[in-house]
Design a protein that fits this description.
Layout (H helix, E strand, L loop, with lengths): L5 E4 L5 E8 L2 E5 L5 E5 L3 E3 L6 H5 L21 E3 L2 H4 L8 H21 L4 E5 L6 H13 L2 E4 L2 H4 L3 E5 L2
Parallel strand pairs: 6-7
Antiparallel strand pairs: 1-2, 1-5, 2-3, 3-4, 7-9, 8-9
Helix pairs in contact: 3-4
Length: 165
């Protein structure tokens, strides 16, 4: 793998161009502009023309009809709003400044994903005192987005699923 190669995650619906390689840790940037870092063993090189669904499926040449082909579930992008995920150097910031950064980042992500025709996103806000959740919901209402709690089984009470239509 080299910088500039196109890669896809083996288990997640993520792909992009490699922007950094540090030992076995490969960082790639998705088409939406998000950077993801994974172990090289979790990624596969893909050709620009190869559809991502083909990477995850074992092709059986004996299949003659479409009824035997299973569709892969659509994965909803997740974005973690914990401050340490957005801005690693945050110790000097006041709680109000942290909240402002988190909400600005949520708004930026909403705009970017809607522009790239995504239909949904999951914001992980965490449990804590629920201040971020309340302010995030206020922002979503103000911008006219529909939302509801994300999977309790997966996130507990710590995430919101937003409809971008």
């Amino acid at each position: 793998m080299n910088i500039g190669d196109k890669v896809a995650h083996k288990d997640k619906d993520l792909e992009g161009l490699i922007v950094n390689i540090d030992g076995d840790l490969v960082t790639f940037q998705s088409q939406e502009g998000f950077e993801y870092s994974y172990n090289q063993n979790d990624l596969v090189l893909i050709d620009g023309l190869l559809d991502k669904t083909l990477v995850n499926q074992k092709v059986n040449p004996k299949i003659t009809s479409n009824k035997n082909i299973k569709k892969l579930p659509v994965r909803i992008p997740e974005f973690d709003l914990h401050i340490e995920k957005i801005q690693p150097k945050h110790k000097h910031l006041s709680p109000d400044m942290i909240l402002e950064i988190q909400l600005n980042e949520a708004e930026r992500i909403l705009h970017k994903l809607k522009k790239s025709h995504h239909k949904e996103i999951i914001f992980i806000h965490g449990h804590g005192k629920q201040i971020l959740k309340k302010e995030l919901i206020k922002l979503l209402k103000q911008k006219g987005y529909s939302y509801y709690d994300a999977s309790f089984q997966k996130y507990g009470c710590g995430a919101v699923r937003v409809i971008l239509r």
